[in-house]
Amino acid sequence: MIEINYQTFQDPTRKTVKIPFDRFYDELENGETYEKDGVERYPDHREYIKVDNDRVSYLRIKTPNYSNKIEYGEGGSITQHTVYPDSSEMLVVQSFIEPNVIHSVKVTKNNGVWSSSRIELIYDDEPKIVDIK
């Protein structure tokens, strides 16, 4: 089972939803396992709970492959911290600077070493990377 804890901007009480592997992951092929080969059905974890996406303020998900904590700010900002079984980590902070412009900072830890990148994206019909440092 996949466990998702969440809360909304309107209600500070944290709620828990448990989702069977076969509803969380796409269908497996012969010889595959959810833990090793599972592909998530939805890229946005808010799709798994029955709450409008713009109402969710906090979401924590635990799968066999990672633990992920996401905080959503009103207006679309996101802070996401992911921890993997091998002790590597990823921290992503995204902010909307203006309509169709997102500033994103990604920090990763591999083998105990932290590294970072900054990306600004402009969205029209297709996303375009404007700046990488």
What is the mean pLDDT? 85
Terminus-to-terminus distance:
39 Å
Number of helices: 2
Query: How many distinct beta strands?
Result: 9
Flag low-confidence runs: none
Rg measurement, Å: 16 Å
Shape: globular
Helicity range of the residues? under 10%
Estimated share of beta-strand residues: over 45%
Strand order of the largest sheet: 2-1-3-4-5-6-7-8-9
Structural class: mainly beta
Multimer state = single chain
Q: What composes the largest sheet?
A: 9 strands, antiparallel
Order of helices and strands: EEHHEEEEEEE
Q: Brief description of this entry?
A:
With 133 residues, the chain is mostly beta strands.
Molecular structure report:
The protein has 133 residues and is mainly beta. Helices cover 6% and strands 51% of the residues. It is built from two helices and nine strands, in the order ββααβββββββ. It has helices at 21-24, 34-37, and strands spanning 2-8, 15-19, 56-62, 67-72, 78-83, 89-98, 101-110, 113-123, 127-132. Strands 2-1-3-4-5-6-7-8-9 form a nine-stranded antiparallel β-sheet. Strand 4 (67-72) and strand 5 form a beta hairpin. The N and C termini lie far apart (39 Å). The model has no long low-confidence stretch (mean pLDDT 85).
